[in-house]
Amino acid sequence: MGQDPPKPKHDHEALIFPEGFLWGAATSAYQVEGNNIHADWWEWEQIAKPPQMRSGVAANQYELFEQDFHLAKSLGHNSHRLSIEWSRIEPEEGKFNQEEIDHYIKVLKTLKKLGFTVMLTLHHFTNPAWFAKKGGWESFSAPDRFAKFVEKIVPELSEYVDLWITINEPGIYTWMGFMGGDDAGRFPPAKKSNIAAAKVIFNLARAHKKAYKIVHKLIPDSKVGIAQNLSSFDAYHKHSVSEQLAVFISDITVNHSFFWLTRNCHDFIGVNYYRHLRYRRQKGLLPELMDVTNIQKDVSDLGWEVNPEGLFNVLADVSDDLPIYITECGIASTNDDRRTRFLINYLQETYRATAAGINVKGFFYWSLIDNFEWHRGYPPRFGLVEIDYKTQIRITRPSAHVYEQIIKHNGIPHDLLKLLGHGIQAIDVLKEDIEE
Ligand code: BGC
Asked: Ligand 1, closest atom to CA 169?
């Protein structure tokens, strides 16, 4: 107790990533921009039951984007994932707001000037309020409505975009807005209807395919995909047939079904990885997802199990001929040492994947800055950079500098790995040491 952790020795082995690896962080417009008053989410925040925190000015990235991008640059990032807010660009059906389009041109130009590889998401959970009023994604016309937006915006922005994500997490969007379960029903329109959910997922698949084709028609050599939330699943009792069955069915529905529905319309696989989920038979026949906070596992502030190997497993699970980008991976924690440990461990598994021949080409930490975590509001802290919401001051967390060191080496210095064994405090010593 109270003793300094051992001073690490340098050695020159490191886990080196493939050349040209993309290192960056991700955000989404609604979660960081602020004042997205034409979005269905904005309307939802005013009426949600139980009432939830409102997004308000968020991290005010709408005005502070230059500062944030310079910060990312100074932290060594070579790429950035962000989204545009459909409801700003098309606040009324068929009426496009040129000022907002110009704003996004400015945003993307800034990124390009700083030398970033840009990954742009066209739809990240929020819709224009008018679109929601017309039946949202349940409507058979929804994919065409989205396609018109895509046709308009893609030529405006294409000069500044390297990788396109049509839709972020169609599965989570459908689950949270249209199905049952713990957190479900906490996204608009909070329907809880399996029939509605089936329509939505089907329409999202149609929308992705249309958008994929439009982007390719407009820019023949473009790279287009989705960012899908993939989870790793486990059975608590390996002997339990019902638990194993739950694992199997979850893997198919959560991790594979949307890719099957949209086969041949992906130039890469975008993986958002957050959760390792364990099924456990309770009193009844059907297994349920376990609360892992009491099984001595490291968990995030949201109670999500830290399970780096799960990332390797999902990467292996979806790997085929297509390149893979980890489009989101991060931890909500007010303890930044945890984030540091998380980054090193998850990147070690990413390295393992590349070493195993899985074609992983980039990693986008979620998130560059703290942001509006949907129905959970502002308490979860995912950022490499802290936001003081009273002043909008950006405070770089130490973990951001550890990430910076990894990026600088295009790999994980061996010292970082060795230090994990010495406990979290040792990381501070390392941070000083590798900066020398
Ligand atoms: C979403 C993000 C969200 C993150 C953490 C992902 O499902 O794409 O918008 O903030 O998870 O919950």
From this structure: 8
- Ligand 1: residues with CB < 6 A are 28, 31, 168-169, 172, 229, 272, 274, 328, 366, 373
pTM of the predicted protein model: 0.94
Separation between Cα atoms, residue 200 and residue 387, nearest integer Å: 34
Question: Which atom of ligand 1 is least distant from the CA of 302?
Answer: 12
Higher model confidence: residue 63 or residue 436? Answer: 63
Q: What domain count does the chain have?
A: 1
Number of other CB atoms surrounding residue 347 within 10 Å: 26
Q: Is 9 inside any structural domain?
A: no
Residue located nearest, by CA, to atom 3 of ligand 1: 373
Domain membership of residue 2 (yes or no) is no
Nearest Cα to 122, choosing from 35, 222, 20, 256? Answer: 222
Average pLDDT over residues 335-364: 96
Is residue 10 assigned to a domain? no
Q: In the prediction, which pLDDT does 290 show?
A: 83
Question: Dihedral of CA 51/43/104/155: which sign?
Answer: positive
Q: How far is residue 314's CA from residue 307's CA, in Å, rounded to a whole number?
A: 12
* Structural domain range at position 84: 15-435
For residue 321, give the 3-state DSSP assignment: coil
Mean pLDDT lowest for which of 17-26, 42-51, 245-254?
42-51
Task: Give the angle 312-314-315 at the CA atoms, nearest 5°.
Answer: 65
